[in-house]
Structures are given as structure tokens and as C-alpha cells.
Amino acid sequence: MCEFTIKLNLKGVNTSYNLVTKVCKYCGKEFVIPANYGVGNYCSRKCSFLAKRVIHTPNTKCEYCGKDIYIKPSRLRRTKHICCSKECMGKLRKSLYLGENNPRYNKLQDRVIIHNNGKVYYEVPVENHPFAHKPRGKRQYYKEHRYVVEQNYKLFDEKYFVIINGVHYLNPNIDIHHKNGITTDNSIDNLEPLTRSEHTKEHNKESVFYEITKMVE
């Protein structure tokens, strides 16, 4: 380390600085700083950052591409699948949860399971249905119990339906009641189209019956 003094004369004012030459502990480059500047171990912020960063030893592999990576042990314990990037995680999920391996896929038919207000329902893929949900990927889905009633519209009163291009569709304001209370039982004998008020009254009757039965027990 070398130390020397530089004197400057600025507008008649004499100023002297004690400068010190040091060697950067990261890159080995020599640099000059004022003696009162501080420790001055590094020639730049970049060298300071690179020298202080922690380089972890890889402790696992990406489940998709096999790349060696480091993951915090706490995350390793709580995470089922570990990947090196969002891209690898997306590709892994596509391979793991395809078809019958998808928890939302029903093995009996080409339909999916949905949960609404604590109840379980089925949805089926449809094409060009005016009241279907927005497409999920390349398909539109529609509640199976409504679809079954529409396919058997001749069994019910016309007031529950609207006709579009000669096809009978359930009015969106009409509910479907599951008579036995099992929302996944979409057999036609278990389904009944009702207005919202009629549907509410039906469930209120069931609630009163349940309370009376409970009191008797």
C-alpha cells in the first residue's frame, strides 16, 4: 500500500488530500482512494457485491431437466415438486397432471369436477353453447345437470326453456334441483327444473324436515 499527498490550488485555496493506493481483494486491480475514505477493500460496487455474495452448493436437481440447483431446506421440506424455473415447472405439470392424473378429471366420462358453495358438481365439454362458461383451453364447459335436462326438454314444461336457432336451452334464470340431494347424481329422474323462488322453497322444506327429525332424535 502506497501513501502520497496531492496539493491542489483552486481559486487561491490550497487543499491537500492524502491518497492511498490499494489492491482490490476481488479482482486484484490497483485503485486510489483518500486515506480517510474508509477500509476500501474493493475497487467498485460490482466487486464488493460479487465478493460478498453467497454461492450455495447445489443440494437437489430440477425434477424436469435434471439441472443441479440450490433450494432452501425449508422449501424442500414443504414442496412436492422442485424445478429450476417456471418454464420447467409448467412442462412438468403438463406431464404429471395429464388426463386421468388430473384431480379435476373424472374417470367415468370426459367431464370435470367443480366445487361450488361446498358442493360437488360435474361439468361436461360442449360446443357453441350460448350459456357455456368461457373456454378452458380449447374447450367450453357446461354444468352436466343442466345439459341433461336440455337433452330431455320434452319431459318438462316449455316455460323453463328458451329456443335459439330451433334448439331448446335452459333459461339462465332457472335452477336445477337434485331431488335426492346428491349433486353428482345427474340421472334424469333425479333432476327437476325450478324457478329461483321454487328452488329456495324446496330447500327450506328440507331444512325444516331436518330440524324436526333432529329434535325427535
Describe this structure in words.
- This protein is rod-shaped.
- A hairpin with a 2-residue loop joins strand 1 (2-10) and strand 2 (13-23).
- The chain is α+β, with helices and mostly antiparallel strands.
- The protein has helices spanning 45-52, 73-78, 86-96, 144-151, 196-216, and strands at residues 2-10, 13-23, 30-34, 60-61, 68-69, 105-106, 111-116, 119-126, 140-143, 161-164, 167-170, 174-178, 191-195.
- It is built from 5 helices and 13 strands.
- The chain has 3 domains: 2-52, no CATH class; 60-96, no CATH class; 102-216, Homing Intron 3 (I-Ppo) Encoded Endonuclease, Chain A, CATH 3.90.75.
- The longest helix is centred in the C-terminal third of the chain and has 21 residues, at 196-216.
- The protein has a 4-stranded antiparallel beta sheet. Strands 1-2-3 form a 3-stranded antiparallel beta sheet, with no helix packed on it. It has a two-stranded antiparallel ribbon with strand order 4-5.
- Helix content is 25%, strand content 31%.
